[in-house]
Amino acid sequence: MRFIFKTEYQQDIRLFRHGGQVFWYSALAVALFLAPWLLPDYYVSQLVFIWIYSIVGLGLMLLAGYTGQVSIGHAAFLAMGAYTEAYLQQLGWPFALSLACSAIVAGATGVIVGLPALRVKGMYLAIATLAFGFIVEEAVTRAEGITGGNSGKSVGALDIFGIPIDSELRFYYVVLAILVLCILGVMNLLRSPTGRAFVAIRDSEISAQSMGINLARYKTIAFALSAALTGIAGALYAHKLRYLSPEQFTVLQSIELLIMVTIGGLGSIHGAVFGAAFWIAVQQFIVLAKDWLPPEIGQQTGLQPTIFGLCLVGFVLFEPLGLYGRWLKVRAYFQLFPFYRKGMFKRQKSYMKSERLK
Amino acid sequence: MQFLQLLVSGIAQGCIYGLIALGFVLIYKATETVNFAQGDLMMLGGFLGLSGTVALGMPFWAAFAATLVIMMLFGMLLERVVLRPLLGQPAFTVVMLTIGIGYLARGLVTMIPGWGTETHTLPVPYKDEVIRFGGNGVDGGLVISMEHMAIVAVTAFLIVALYLFFRFTRLGIAMQATSQNQLAAFYMGIPVRRINMLIWGISAAVSACAGLLLAPITFVHANMGFIGLKAFPAAVIGGFGSIPGALVGGLVIGVIESLAGFYLPEGFKDIAAYIVVLVMLAVKPSGLFGGNLRKRV
Fold it and tell me: Which residues, including other chains, have CB under 8 Å from residue A21's CB and lie 6 or more apart?
């Protein structure tokens, strides 16, 4: 177990707590840099999906995990980003500009969706975002001039400053670089006063307000940033799939994104990445398992929802902090070996808290 | 006449929304959690009814009653096994749990032999019968299909029965007390946890009832539970937490949807409910029948 002896205040907000972290994250960075050369193309392609979903997860984590505002309409922002990128690229805009525009368009939509958040909260907000998700889904189907409607829209290959990103290898590095920038951005944000305000709002709106935090302002910022991150992911998603159609951005997809971050572990940046990795890995696992399972089970279309449902129920019941929580426990076990006790992370016993005022 | 015709089919559809919303509201009032698996409970009810009538060859109304009883037990089991361990956890945790249950139900249903991914027709004794009002008895006038009549009649019956139950029985009054103040109810000697279990049972049975009534119109299939997402707007419009509100909200959504499908351009039918709920949230978040929305610190 490492005890950090703090001698200055700067140590509280450092991105890396101690040398060990620097070492391990550098090792991870090297591994990820080398990965596309060592892995077959198919796995590289799946890694790209993981990075893209991690960016979405980051956006949703910022909103649901750190600000405590539930959104069941995040696929709408993904759609905004994806279609903006596809449309602007068609017009011949450079990637840097169109990516920024995707983020801005999605972010602006996020502000609009965030408006109900200023008046309603909790369950009502979830339903407002759900309603918004349905409306965007329908709008995307109807706006055939921009989105191609139900027949879909194909997206051209990426081109950055004259360098064509035509291979999976090059695209991998582009997505990885954007993911790293996004993670650093969110980490930076979370140690700034804005990030602290988000966490304060999540923990208690009333005490946050008493501390002088402008709820309306910070909730709007949270929605905008979250939507913008999702918009960036959407733009990359468009280039990854090279073909967009409205059924990729349904409300079901929004719910799946929410499941993804919950399984990853709400309230941690690791959780966003873990959740995305889990999501893709399980899907691949199901594809592989189909070959060696007996066909009565393997060929069932319901296999995937069943497994996701089971995982979600299992995590909520037994591991509320998700994969990240499990990772913390495993780490603590080895750091403290042999002094780990079973009850160290026990969920605090709590009683039914009523939110009603009567 | 056209308008009346739309109104009638809207009301019938609205009753279904109302029944599902009623399921939400019962659980929300009692336990302050929102059950996202309500639509999937409805789907299970539809499939059970199917098995009862087709596979076991029971008469329709016997299968109907059996389904309600089985679903009630299932709802109680669900509360006891998965939800009770989470008592006192944040609302979001419970919401995610119910989403997971919904996923699980949708996936498992496709694996059960005889249910599967296909759409099934639930044979009902009143199929394809219509009642005509006005006109010359053959065409013209208002035509109401028996499926719609059955929905409205059973919903009305169920509402009256629930009203009488909550108003006049010991158990119903205990449930009201629990939903008003759990702690006080507990001090009065009401077994709050057992009451919550019963509430889940009733809510599941009400949803199953909606599923059985809807089945002749939309068929039975694994994804029929998505209609539950349309019942959210109904519950919000009624004010989440008001039983008559849920029904009125359902009727409002059903009628608006039906009218929007005819008078507005294509595409508005599916999103009309959501536009209405957004307007409602912006204008009067507490809903038509809702109480105050203030929150305890």
Answer: none
Number of domains in chain A: 1
Q: Does residue A15 lie in a domain region?
A: no
Count interface pairs A-B at CB distance under 8 A: 162
- Chain A residues whose CB is inside 8 A of the B95 CB are 70, 123, 126
* Pick from B111, B182, B277: CB nearest A354: B182
The per-residue pLDDT for range A196-233, each reduced to its tens digit, is 999 999 888 888 999 999 998 999 999 999 999 999 99
B103:A309 CB<8 A:
yes
The CATH number linked to A247 is: 1.10.3470
H or E segment and range at residue A281: helix A269-292
Q: Kindly determine whether residue A300 and residue B110, on different chains, have CB atoms separated by under 8 Å.
A: yes
Which residues of chain B register pLDDT less than 50?
A: 293, 296-297
CB-CB contact of B231 with B41 (8 Å): no
Contact list in B for residue A115 (CB cut-off 8 A) is 282
Domain presence at residue B261: no
Q: Which domain holds residue B156?
A: 2-225
Q: Which chain B residues are Cβ-neighbours of A70 within 8 angstroms?
A: 92, 95
Does B180 lie at the interface with A, CB-CB under 8 angstroms?
yes
Nearest chain A residue to B97, by CA: A313
| Contact map slice: B 16-45 vs A, CB within 8 A | 28, 31-32, 34
Q: Assess contact for A129 and A115: CB atoms under 8 A.
A: no
Residue A315 sits in which domain range? Answer: 39-344
For each of chain A's 358 residues, which pLDDT tens digit applies?
677 888 888 888 888 888 888 999 999 999 999 999 999 988 999 999 999 999 999 999 999 999 988 889 899 999 999 999 999 988 888 888 999 999 999 999 999 888 877 777 777 888 889 999 999 988 888 888 888 878 888 887 777 777 787 788 889 999 999 999 999 999 999 999 999 999 999 888 888 999 999 998 999 999 999 999 999 999 999 999 889 988 889 888 999 999 999 999 988 999 999 999 999 999 888 888 887 877 766 667 778 888 899 999 999 988 888 899 899 889 888 888 888 887 777 766 666 556 554 4
The 10s digit of each residue's pLDDT in A253-294 is 999 999 999 999 988 999 999 999 999 999 888 888 887 877
The 8-class DSSP code of residue A140 comes to H
Give a yes or no: residue A1 inside a domain.
Answer: no
H or E element: which one contains B144? strand B142-145
Looking at chain A, the whole-number percentage of residues with pLDDT higher than 70 is 95
- The total of structural domains in chain B comes to 1
Q: Is A20 part of any domain?
A: no
B88–A119 CB contact, under 8 Å: no
Tens-place pLDDT, residues B121-137: 888 887 777 787 766 55
Residues 6+ apart with CB under 8 A from A225: A59, A62, A107, A110, A189
User: Measured between CB atoms, does A119 come within 8 Å of chain B?
Assistant: yes
Q: What is the DSSP letter of B82?
A: I
| Contact: B275, A135; criterion CB under 8 Å | yes
> ipTM score of the complex?
0.87
Report the pLDDT value the prediction gives residue B297, as an integer from 0 to 100: 44
Q: Kindly state whether B144 is in contact with chain A, defined as any CB-CB distance less than 8 angstroms.
A: no
pLDDT attached to residue B248? 92
Q: Is residue B286 part of a domain?
A: no
Query: Smallest Cβ distance to A255: which of B99, B109, B232?
Result: B99
Cβ(A205)–Cβ(A14) below 8 Å:
no
B107/A306 touch (CB, cutoff 8 Å), yes or no = yes
Q: Is residue B257 part of a domain?
A: no
| Cβ-count burial A168-192 (b if 16+ within 10 Å, e if not) | eeebbebbbebbeebbeebeebbee
Collect all residues of chain B within an 8 Å Cβ-Cβ radius of residue A310: 100, 104
Residue B69 lies in a domain: yes
Helix (H/G/I), strand (E/B), else coil: A278: helix
